[in-house]
Amino acid sequence: MEHPPLPVGEVLAPGYTIAGHLHQSNNYDVYDVFSEERACSCIAKARRRDLTDKEAARLALLREGDLLEGLTHPHIARHYETIREPEPVLILETLTGETLAYLIDEGYRRLPLAEVAHLGLHLCSAIHYLHGQGILHLDLKPSNIVSERGMAKILDLSIAQAPGPCRKGAGTVQYMAPEQVRGDHVDASTDVWGIGAVLFEAATAEPPFNAEYEDETASEYTTGSSTGTWTDAKIEDYDQISRRADPVRAHRRVPAIFNTLIARCLDPDPAKRPSLPELTNGLRSLV
Question: Can you tell me whether residue 32 is helix, strand or coil?
Answer without folding.
Answer: strand
